[in-house]
Task: inverse folding
């Protein structure tokens, strides 16, 4: 095994909450992005601009080191770093990519802390992990020091290779995942590559869920004309607006109420919850929707869950509920964009964003209003 295997639980998707982000930052997509280039909205993706730059650069550089690698893209690197460090959340990233304070994992002394049960003796003299007795995973991609030493690349070309530099770490992760020349555009090869990074299929599924969402950001279908296009455009314009529990409505973002199951006090956040966003978008074309997602299910022509996602057309409301046959159990709503994507306000701690319609497991059908 090349790196420490994380044994913690996967993050649980709260069915009633959503996000916060700054105003959108647009960056050029990396060469070879299977989504066809265009603009990358770092804020809508919930990724700090400097980390996004590292992912883009790392993906673009990889064929310099692994000429046979195909399909490497920023979304793959972002999917790994989201799970490993939440994109270096809570740390400062300099213009050159250096991360302070350094990100280090639990001491791998076999004590059970942080899920480790096998002691791994120090290999770097504490150079990167600050521990001269045992190893700790290091940097935003959480490499073990000996693994980083074997694969490390100078992503920012400053003559120093460090796991605590975002560019170096991203380039190294790209090389590691490519192996001897994988085709990461092939989903099964991508899953196999992630499994070498951490030999847990639950971990692979967690990373893949993030990659799928990031992929969706780069592949938007053309906007329809007329009122449907106006609704979708109104919702898309709110990307990056924070989730606020109970917030938003026909007039736009607003403070919400207290408190979400996860503890967010919406009164302190100006933004939208899921049904507040749909109210706002449809108000732009003169349609008044009820306040809650479950009530909105009865506002138009109902599309049953049994018809599948293929029955949806752009502009439809798309619902999620604990019992797909009972509207009273619906807990979430988005607006269908086409091509398997929706715009929604997902949960506290996230922003209005584009997600695949498969982002939640309990699809409960849709409603057509136009």
Result:
């Amino acid at each position: 095994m090349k790196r420490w295997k994380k044994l913690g639980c996967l993050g649980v998707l709260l069915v009633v909450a959503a996000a916060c982000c700054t105003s959108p930052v647009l960056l050029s997509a990396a060469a070879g992005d299977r989504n066809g280039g265009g603009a990358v909205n770092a804020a809508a993706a919930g990724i700090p601009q400097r980390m996004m730059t590292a992912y883009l650069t790392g993906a673009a550089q990889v064929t310099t080191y692994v000429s046979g690698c195909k399909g490497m893209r920023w979304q793959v690197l972002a999917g790994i770093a989201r799970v490993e460090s939440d994109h270096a959340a809570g740390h400062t990233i300099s213009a050159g990519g250096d991360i302070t304070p350094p990100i280090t994992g639990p001491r791998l002394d076999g004590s059970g802390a942080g899920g480790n049960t096998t002691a791994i003796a120090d290999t770097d003299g504490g150079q990167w992990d600050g521990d001269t007795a045992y190893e700790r995973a290091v940097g935003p991609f959480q490499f073990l020091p000996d693994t980083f030493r074997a694969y490390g690349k100078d992503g920012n070309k400053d003559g120093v290779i460090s796991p605590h530099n975002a560019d170096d770490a991203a380039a190294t992760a790209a090389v590691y995942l490519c192996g001897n020349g994988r085709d990461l555009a092939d989903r099964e090869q991508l899953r196999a590559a992630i499994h070498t990074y951490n030999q847990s299929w639950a971990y692979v599924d967690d990373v893949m869920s993030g990659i799928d969402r990031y992929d969706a950001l780069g592949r938007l279908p053309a906007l329809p004309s007329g009122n449907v296009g106006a609704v979708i455009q109104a919702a898309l314009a709110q990307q990056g607006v924070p989730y606020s529990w109970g917030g938003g409505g026909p007039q736009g973002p607003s403070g919400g109420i207290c408190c979400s199951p996860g503890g967010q006090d919406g009164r302190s956040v100006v933004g939208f919850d899921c049904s507040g966003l749909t109210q706002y978008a449809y108000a732009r074309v003169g349609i008044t929707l009820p306040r809650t997602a479950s009530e909105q299910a009865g506002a138009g022509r109902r599309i049953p869950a049994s018809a599948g996602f293929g029955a949806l057309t752009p502009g439809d409301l798309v619902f999620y509920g604990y019992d797909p046959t009972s509207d009273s159990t619906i807990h979430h709503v988005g607006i269908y964009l086409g091509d398997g994507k929706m715009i929604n306000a997902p949960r506290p701690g996230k922003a209005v964003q584009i997600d695949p319609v498969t982002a939640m497991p309990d699809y409960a059908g849709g409603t057509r209003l136009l």
User: Anything to note?
Assistant: DSSP finds ten helices and twelve strands in the chain. The longest strand covers residues 330-338. Residues 12 and 206 are 10 Å apart (CA to CA).
